[in-house]
Amino acid sequence: MIMRPFIDSLYERYLRMQCRQVPNHIAIIQDGNRRYAKMLGIDTPKGHRAGADKTEEMLDWAHELGVRHITLYTFSTENFSRKKDEVEDLFALFKEKFLNILTDERVKKYKIRVQMVGDRSMIPRDLREAVENAESATRDHTGFHLNIALAYGGRNEIVLAAREILSAVEKDKVNPELIDVQMVEQYLHEGKGIPPVDLIIRTGNEYRTSNFLPWLANGHESAVYFCAPCWPLFRKIDLLRAIRIYDQRASVKKGT
Hints:
There is one protein chain. By secondary structure, this protein is an alpha/beta fold. It has a single domain (24-153, 196-254), classed as 3-Layer(aba) Sandwich (Undecaprenyl pyrophosphate synthetase), CATH 3.40.1180. The protein is 49% helix and 14% strand. A six-stranded parallel sheet has the order 3-4-2-1-5-6, sandwiched between helices. Strand 3 (112-117), helix 6 (125-138) and strand 4 form a beta-alpha-beta unit. Helix 1 packs parallel to helix 9 and helix 3 (44-65) packs parallel to helix 4. The radius of gyration is 19 Å and the shape is globular.
């Protein structure tokens, strides 16, 4: 065990040498908070809080490695079917984290822009206000982009965009003959300028992408990396392994 930190450090350096190309946009499905809590014999809210702490640590790693955009699958539309107490605890945790953005020195230092992706009508008013305040406070930041997928569902996202486009057509704001890929992407994310996903990471030993960013990920054939650790146990080594998969795939596409 004494040698473990030294061995991990060497392995981390080895992985970094192999990651010649760093993805611009990584999307992460943070799975396993509840299993982590069960494994340690702690209550579920503590598992979710451990996951939130890991998220902050991971963002430091991503910034250090040169990643510019991170999208986190925080709460799906399907998650509303969970027990009422768990959902309320999660919303309270989300609100706390969005409020912390207003005073977090790293947000100012790294020029982090925070945006929510999802159906705002589905979340409580106080959480929505916290989200909007965080977005407003970071609107002019351009150093690092953090997108929070909250009350999010990929198919629902496309349905909502279709409704918006149809409404614009009815108001003569959009010519149906001019609807193209770029226009759909703009309506999908309310003009937030979210780029195509280069790499999807899913933790918790699950091997599916769960309706996450189907247009920006599947539509652009992003690389996918599945790993066993529950999200609170995710390591920098796991992030580097995922980036190595992206690098290998990008190199093949370039023919190098």
